[in-house]
Specification:
Strand order of the largest sheet: 1-4-3-2
Distance between the termini: 67 Å
Shape: globular
Largest sheet: 4 strands, antiparallel
Radius of gyration: 23 Å
Helix content: 25-40%
Length: 252
Amino acid sequence: MFKQGVNKILFFVVLFLACLSSVSAEAASSDPLWLSSWRAGTVVSDSDVKSVGISRCFVSEDISDKVFKRMWLKSWKRNCTMKRSQLCYLKMLHRNAKGQTQLGEMVVNRAIAGKVLRIFRKLYDSGYRIERMVLIDDYDADDQASMRANNTSCFNFRFMTGSKTRVSKHGQGLAIDINALYNPYVRKNSNGTWTIEPKEGRPYAFNRDKRKDIPYKIDRNDLVYKLFIEAGFTWGGAWRRSKDYQHFEISL
């Protein structure tokens, strides 16, 4: 009698676990393909995002072999002093130029992953426009090409100008450039000429305080500025000798 009772309990336990497994499998199979493949630049519907849950669209992951293969000899140079484990891969959503929901990606220093996810989640929720957010490796780690494309990115290993030991903030995954074409780097040279990067950003480089015709303009009234400053970053647009309007960086 006791044995029969135990067998009956075991039967219901097995049945319950089987049902759970079936529900999990059904839920997984109902996920849209983009969630697992996550190809940055893909436009998705808001209803799809709602169905999978927005929290699953703002996540931090280890640098997978697939992602590292994209980075190798591009943003990740042979002389890279960073450990792969010090970086992580972020999946994030953003609103593109048309206001559509678009898949984005970024490699950042693991120490700031949480801050960055929170900032970009708030930007997305507010409808803030970010035209493009793909790894700089899609441009062969060429800063100029990435900026011309108005791309938003972070990690790209390099040393600071004139140094073979001091790693730049981008080289540490601690600096983020946002909507780079319309928020260029601007410096007046000693001979009176100007350095503007990208050079295609020249129409957006001057008299920015007074102008209202610059799309994606970052200034002290802009939401992206407020969120990054609140999170402990500093803004290149506040530098004295040069202005890097696209640039936010943080020290650990």
